[in-house]
Design goal:
The complex is a heterodimer of chains A (479) and B (246). In chain A, 31% of the residues lie in helices and 17% in strands. With 479 residues, chain A is α/β, with parallel strands linked by helices. Chain B has 246 residues and is of the alpha/beta class. Chain B has a six-stranded mixed sheet. In chain B, helix 3 crosses helix 5 and helix 7 packs antiparallel against helix 8. Chain B is globular. Chain B starts with a strand and ends with a helix. Classes of the chains: A alpha/beta (479), B alpha/beta (246).
């Protein structure tokens, strides 16, 4: 392999090398400039000389394959790569600011700050997983934030791309990565499960809210293996004021079996965005770890980590969508709401990990000041939440898969579209207004949602009756 | 230059035509034919004539075990393949048979190697079923990329400088860059008799500048190809398996 050509002032493939801004164990980072590119650029160059860790080369090959395929605000834009035949490098945009590692002295963070921070990272992870990539090295030093607020995930040297050869699959006898954050299944060589990233993010959330790492800092295989059978101390045992909803989220991320974690990063982001909607289970109440008898059973009864089928990132995400059903609980015709329930039930039947958000828009008057209380003095907002839950009861969904939301807005369609966007909803189910004078006058909410949403939209109508000319009642916010 | 690589056409005219059409539409500039032009399918004459024309225009072609069996009864094959090969022998004229027998076992082109079965002992027609088989082939050649077929199931293997292997089942239409730092063994699916569960015809595009390989599929008129097999009195299983892709 040729000797490195890199020094300040040198030119490689049109990139002029500036200063070295970081020299890590695997690679060095240099500022570079290129005529025609007026964004700040970084060139990453692997350490490949004699005696260096061969892992550095393989990791770099993975980055060279994966980075040029990634897009969007949650990854650094890649501008070019250079081959090992001449000088291996990748050129990426230089993201200003520092990594989350710099926040370590501030730990523990206030709960709400940590919640918002991790929600942004979960959103970034969801976007990465949708691009068929599992990061496999989620930790504070792999995370940056754009000035616009989006989390950016950096460092793809340990990543897995579901559509590309995994060069790391047989490279290392021991699992390679950052021990305190590594998911237990990684210890048995599993590299194709996106929920491994959710475990790492759970470690980060635990650490950022308690100031302690759930599995310590041990780097030895023995220390890492403990997490296969020993659960972490519940955060509430470390901080008495730890919110139950937060413990529920953290411990769900840290479940030993991937299947007990959140099915997707989007669903985790959803819970972090709606802490009041988190379904509390026994996890939320725990003050102690599992008794030793349980831990020992896990340790010696190796039903845990049973052999598993190869998983497919895209299939995993597709089977666990977030559905939103828009309902008019007040004036909606019973038959339209029934048709919505039948359609929702059919969609849910094929998707055992889907979660459902039932949404109602409380329409505000454009001019008059709205009152929270109706004529009878009962709270409209709460009434509607109750009605939404009532509508969903026959679906018999586990509560951790169901949430109800009342949005207050002047423009129902805009409110639904925003809800779908912010919560990464994959599929909106909405009832159509029947042909009526009011639709002609007001325009159709479902038509606007269907045409402007960035996700799939199913528009539902009640079964057609002979001679039926429509029901003016099936309108209002959900129509 | 964009290469289109076809393997295991096996006398299936409809499948080969469909692949050629898609490859040309995608801008293929040079064709590579990895052997097994005949056997199983009912149009060996058309396939061999087409291959001869393509070679005359600069295509690379190598010999497969079925091509060899046409001219030699020494090749051992299963019963159905044997029936098909004896039928094929009667269909080909002297020049077509000579074309097949004159084909080279392997062709080296720049840092690429083309061979029907694998590179360690091409005349023994070993299948590449695992990373161990792939490693044997990769160790036998300095080529950056070896292209082979024979097993009718697409796969992509690599070997690092420290002789660590990777295996991968390629995704259709997703280009993969074959990095320079390692050696690659690209196993083609079959044009004329796919066996990986997808009945559509398989081929590969390879960009020699960017070193990107793309595994492609072309749907084709299976009913006609299967009908021709039945109408010519060949074993029915050879027709049935086409629609099942196995």
């Amino acid at each position: 392999m040729p000797k490195s050509l890199v020094k300040s002032g040198a030119v490689i493939d049109g990139y002029t090398i500036g200063e070295c801004v970081h020299a890590g164990g695997m690679a060095t980072l240099w500022t570079v400039t290129h005529p025609g590119l007026d964004v700040p650029l970084l060139m990453k160059i692997p350490r490949v000389s004699e005696g260096e860790d061969p892992a550095a080369i393989v990791s770099f090959e993975m980055e060279m394959m994966i980075l040029p395929r990634l897009a969007g605000p949650h990854v650094p834009t890649c501008f070019g790569t250079g081959d090992f035949a001449h000088q291996a490098y990748v050129v990426i945009e230089r993201i200003s600011g520092t990594t989350l590692y710099k926040r370590l002295p501030d730990l523990p963070l206030p709960y709400d700050e940590a919640r918002q921070l991790v929600a942004r990272i979960a959103t970034a992870l969801a976007d990465l997983h949708r691009q068929n990539v599992i990061h496999h090295d989620i930790k504070p030093s792999s995370i940056m934030f754009r000035e616009s607020g989006e989390a950016v995930l950096i460092d793809y040297g340990l990543s897995h791309h579901n559509h590309l050869p995994d060069l790391l699959q047989e490279e290392f006898r021991l699992p390679y990565g950052t021990a305190p954050y590594m998911a237990p299944e990684r210890l048995s060589g599993v590299r194709d499960d996106p929920r491994s990233d959710l475990f790492s993010l759970g470690v980060l959330l635990y650490f950022f809210t308690t100031g302690e790492r759930p599995f310590g800092e041990g780097e030895t295989l023995r220390a890492m293996r403990r997490r296969l059978w020993r659960d972490p101390h519940p955060p509430r045992s470390l901080r008495a004021d730890y919110p139950p909803w937060l413990q529920e989220i953290v411990l769900r991320c840290l479940e030993i079996e991937p299947v007990w974690r959140y099915p997707t990063a989007s669903q985790l982001a959803f819970d972090l965005a709606h802490p009041d909607q988190v379904k509390l289970t026994k996890r939320a109440e725990r003050l102690k770890r599992d008794p030793l008898s349980v831990a020992w059973r896990r340790r010696f009864n190796l039903g845990v980590m049973a052999p598993r089928a190869k998983s497919d990132v895209a299939a995993q995400i597709a089977s666990s969508p977030i559905l939103a059903v828009a309902l008019d609980t007040v004036e909606g015709a019973a038959e339209l709401n029934e048709a919505l329930r039948v359609t929702t039930e059919r969609i849910l039947a094929t998707l055992p990990s889907a979660r459902l958000a039932c949404v109602n828009v409380l329409k505000l008057n454009r001019i008059a000041i709205d009152r929270t209380l109706d004529e009878q003095g009962s709270n409209k907002h709460i009434d509607r939440l109750v009605a939404l839950r009532h509508w969903a009861t026959p679906l018999k969904l586990d509560e951790s898969r169901l949430s109800v939301h009342v949005l207050e807005a002047v423009d129902p369609a805009a409110a639904l579209l925003e809800f779908a966007e912010v919560n990464q909803v994959d599929h909106v189910i909405i009832g159509a207004r029947q042909s009526s004078f009011r639709r002609t006058l007001l325009g159709s909410v479902s038509a606007k949602v269907a045409s402007e949403a960035s996700c799939t939209v199913t528009v539902v109508r009640p079964p057609r009756m002979a001679g039926d000319v429509g029901d003016a009642g099936a309108e209002e916010a959900a129509g | 230059m964009l290469l289109a690589v076809f393997s295991d056409i096996h006398g299936n005219r409809q499948a080969f035509e469909a692949c050629l059409k898609v490859a040309r539409a995608k801008g293929a500039e040079r064709f590579v034919l990895l052997g097994d032009f005949v056997g199983y399918g009912a149009d060996p004459e058309w396939v061999v004539d087409t291959a001869m024309e393509l070679v005359a225009q600069g295509a690379i072609a190598v010999r497969g075990n079925h091509d060899q069996a046409v001219n030699s009864s020494a090749e051992t094959m299963n019963a159905e393949a044997q029936v098909a090969i004896e039928w094929t022998r009667g269909r080909l004229d002297t020049s077509q048979r000579r074309f097949l027998s004159d084909l080279p076992m392997l062709v080296e082109d720049s840092d690429r190697l083309f061979v029907h079965s694998e590179a360690s002992s091409p005349q023994r027609w070993h299948y590449v079923r695992s990373t161990v088989d792939a490693a044997k082939s990769l160790i036998a050649t300095p080529a950056h990329v070896t292209f082979c077929g024979h097993i009718h199931r697409p796969a992509l293997y690599s070997m690092s400088v420290t002789a660590k292997m990777t295996s991968f089942t390629p995704k259709t239409d997703v280009p993969v860059q074959l990095l320079r730092g390692r050696q690659w063994l690209a196993v083609m699916g079959s044009v004329g008799q796919p066996r990986d569960g997808d009945p559509s015809a398989a081929f590969v595009l390879f960009d020699t500048e960017s070193c990107q390989i793309t595994y492609c599929r072309a749907p084709y008129d299976i009913a006609t190809a299967a009908g021709r097999i039945r109408d010519n009195g060949l074993p029915h299983w050879l027709a049935d398996r086409l629609s099942q892709g196995r």
